[in-house]
Amino acid sequence: MNEIRSCPGDRVLVLGNHDGNARGLRLLGFTVQHTLALCATAPPLALSHEPLRQIPPGAICVHGHLHEGAEPTVRHINLTVEQTLYRPVRLARFVEQAREREWTISNNRR
Length: 110
Prior knowledge:
Elements: H1 2-6, E1 12-14, H2 22-28, E2 32-34, E3 36-39, E4 45-48, E5 60-63, E6 76-78, H3 91-108
Parallel strand pairs: 1-2, 4-5, 5-6
Antiparallel strand pairs: 3-4
């Protein structure tokens, strides 16, 4: 976990159901902690631990919590460590997934 502190920029942690010690998480290097984060990407991303039931209009929900489970809808991306083979994922990867889903959603509406 010492590597987190050495990463440049703000290290944002979207809190999950096992992340309770805010001070300890700051000491590890997470400078920002929230239960929900919105990314001004195209399309917008709503980052949360659990899949959101109500997703902001036009956004795609990037979440964890389901581990081995399927994504509830096409507007969800399950980004648990089991889905990423326990490796970090660059923002560009799931922005591209979100764009593909946005395209699918817009082309299925008639």
